[in-house]
Amino acid sequence: MAAVAVSTAPGLPGDKLDHLVKTNQPTEHTIATQPDITYHPDREKWHARTARRLAEDPSLPSTPLPEGFPKKLDSPLVWEGKDWQDEKQWVHELSADELKEIDDAVHHFHGLNLHLGHVSRETFPLPTLGLVLLELAKELHQGRGFFVLRTIPVASYSHFDNVLIYAGVSSYIAPDRGLQDKNGGVLSHIKDLTASQAPGTIGGPAYTTDKQVFHTDHGSDIVSLFALETAAEGGVSRISSSWRVYNELAEHRPDLIKTLSEPWAVDEWGANPPFTLRPLLYYLDSKIVIQYARRYFTGFLGLPRSKDIPPITEAQAEALDTLHFLAEKFSLGLNFQKGDIQYINNLAIFHARDGFRDEGERTRHLLRFWLRNEELGWTIPEPLQPLWRRTFDVTPKVQTFAIEPVVRAAVKASAGIIGEMK
């Protein structure tokens, strides 16, 4: 990938790794042992690994930060869960007049007889609510980085119209919808589908009742979730400031910032090439950007970590655990209700989910968009730009919207061939 010096990648000597990337052939180094680490973080193993590494090299906490990286970030994006005392600080309660505007916009769009890909500010007019949403969009990029809209009366609308409302409202936050699957799909369903899928075919926790650990989504400025239904028990949505986590690392473990800012071998699960190289952490335009999901380095269920790619190092394993447990420490649990729409800055905020239990009609079901606002959006670091181009290079005409739940090809194991979109 552009701007990634493969010779500096951890875990392999530069000449061996350069040969591996150019030829896609395994070397003796690719069979090195993967650290004892799984998708679900183990606090005891984390403490033991940290203690072992510090005992082996007591100078690690004195490691200089990578060149140009700040010692401390000062921004509204630096927060802890305890800083938020009242959900009114981040929830915008939709008024009766605003809900009437949304309903009018639904009827207006139907009258245009357009494909759903053409939902926009122009085709889904919200005269007064639209102005509110434009201001909330600034909060994502320039403020605390998250907010919740409460609440769309989902039971009053068809599946199609709920998707229409979601797309229409979101067009004011960020007009560009990103691909989440290789078939033009810009909408994903987050729901337990294990009962309808063959064992071993699901490779992502979004389609299970399992806990999701802290992560960012793959290749998007903004991640949005729309709750069509909540679980009978559990399923709490959690977010955490990666900027607060950065400050903690910069003060106490700058060596892990160095590790995160170096290229990692990101599993492509059977694609060609079998892995890509890029850092997980960047500093650009006075902003820290982090893009990582743990399963790319540990695997999950039907998509285990590929064998013929470089294993992660002990330093990388510690960094993954440290990111999760610090994010957990500083996190905020959101009271996500049926009909709520949640928006977060995916470049600066981690998100996670508790495990949950469905029962009867209380079956947790969320919709998801990946979004970008070209006017307000941050500059994307060069190594991530190919990923962003793949995500947002989709015209309205070819966008597809899965009205009913399906498993994305990207997280469905099938004869070792995985979809291009991750």
TrEMBL record:
Domain TauD/TfdA-like: 119-370
A UniProt-annotated Pfam family: TauD
Domain of life where this protein originates: Eukaryota
A single MF term (Gene Ontology): oxidoreductase activity
UniProt-listed InterPro entries: AlphaKG_dependent_hydroxylases, TauD-like_sf, TauD/TfdA-like
UniProtKB keywords: Oxidoreductase
Protein name according to UniProt: TauD/TfdA-like domain-containing protein
